[in-house]
Task: structure prediction
Amino acid sequence: MVPLSYYLLLGGILFACGVAGFLIQRNIITIFMSIELMLNGVNLSFVAFAAHWHSLSGQIFVFFVMVVAAAEAAVGLAIIIAVYRTRETLNVDQVNLLKL
Amino acid sequence: MISVHLILFLAFGAVCVGGAINLLAQTHPINSALSLIAVMAALAGEYLLLGAEFVAAVQVIVYAGAVMVLFVFVIMMLNAGAEERTNGSRVAILLGVPGMLLSSILVAWVLLRHFAGETVAAGALHGDPATIGQLLFHEFLLPFEITSVLILIAIMGAVVLAAKPPTSPAVGPAGKVD
Result:
């Protein structure tokens, strides 16, 4: 038996690490990975609440979050490739113009 | 009373938190990607502890497998090197760090207080593929079909965005002006 709050705390820690990474990292790919980390933290909370409320809907939601995350990763990485092609850099500090 | 469930939870949780912190600490994106894979694999273990078999399998196959392979592939294709750290503003550090500590202590206190005494047993909710599929194709059929359209749009968007831009007439592929 593990308290429900432990699972929620672990999810919160992962989400906080994702937010911190999003803010302090300067590489656009690492920033993108931080977003995935946030999604994973939320997924853990979903599964923990699903077990707590005895409802499988939470696990279905995780499935949908994963689908959206996969779509987001595909499109986001394509955008990163396009950015690198035009700017020749992955540092977000140097990507500060909408139009070259 | 320390049960096996709690020990396994703490072990997987330690891997999760360690991987997440390592993701922040590393400067090279490939190291961050590998630590993120460790986080996702450990999270699959947590899902198994909660009885979510299908979610754990999908986590390993889709997340740790497909998505992270895509990340590693892009990192290697773009030959991303170690990033250079820039110093953030002093106000952000002065206000941000105490604010973060305060809010995290507050959230932890509320969670521990509000859900005090509520525990989750190992495998509390059995989410096997048959049951999940039954739900997915009856109760959640419309969202499921909509996500298939979303995936289709994402595929087309990724191909369009990552495709080579049409070469301008001035610099042709063979270097001649046409």
The longest strand of chain B covers residues 119-120. The mean pLDDT of chain B is 86. The first helix of chain B runs from residue 4 to 25.
